[in-house]
Design goal:
Radius of gyration: 17 Å
Helix content: 25-40%
Number of domains: 1
CATH topology: Rossmann fold
Shape: globular
Strand content: 25-35%
Length: 244
Amino acid sequence: MAQIEVVRDMELESPVLVEGLPGVGLVGKIAADHLVRAFDMDHYASCHCEGLPKVAAYREDDPAVRPPVRIYADEGRDLLVLKSDVPVSPERATAFSTCVTGWLVEEDVTPIYLSGLPAEKDGVPEMYGISTGDGDALLAEHDIAQPSESGLVSGPTGALLSEASQADLDSLGLIVQANKQFPDPEAARVLIVEGIEPIADIEVGTDTLVEQAEEISQARANLAKQMQQAEDESSQAQPLGMYQ
C-alpha cells in the first residue's frame, strides 16, 4: 500500500520540509545530506510510494535494511528533510508525487523543493524562487529573486511542484545555476545559505561543505554517472525561451 510510514514519534508544529531528490548537479541531494548530517537528524518516516524502485538500502556499520527514500526530522527546529538514495524515474513521478503531497497536506508541512538549472556559471551561482499556494509571500518576505525568464521544472521535483499547485499547498521551489555534468557543492551551498536558512529559520555551517567539495564530488560521481546514462531525464529546471 502506498503510504508515508512514520517510524518515530515526534512533536512537530507546521514543519518545513527540504526535498533532496537527485537532480542536476545533485544540488538537492547534497543540501539534504548536509542538513541531516549537520543536525544529526533522526529517521522519522519511510516512503512506501508507487514509483519508487524496490531496492534495499543500508548504511556503513549498520546491517538494518531501510527504504531508499526516507524523511528525517529535527524536532527542535521543526525541520524535515526528504532524503533519497536513488533517482526517481520521471515516468513514475506522478504516483510518487501524489503519495508525498497527500501526506504533506495532512501534516501541515511547507515543502521547499530544490532544482538545478544547467548553466555556465560566472562567479557565485544565481538562485531564484517559484511558488505554489501562498508561497510567494515567503519568497517576498526573504527577498528571494523572481525568475528572470520563463521556464519549467521537469522530473520528480517538477511533479511534486505540479501536485502542490493542484492541491493549493503552500510550497516553494528554489532553482540555482548548477553544473550539469558533475556534482555541484557550491550550488548546494547557495541553496542552503540564501534560501533554506532564512525560510526555515535555521543556521547551519557550510564551511565543511566547501572544504569537502572534492570529497563530495567523488562520493556522488557514481550516482551522477547513473543519471547521465539513464534514458529518462532527472529533475531539472530549464528555460522555455521568450516566445513560450
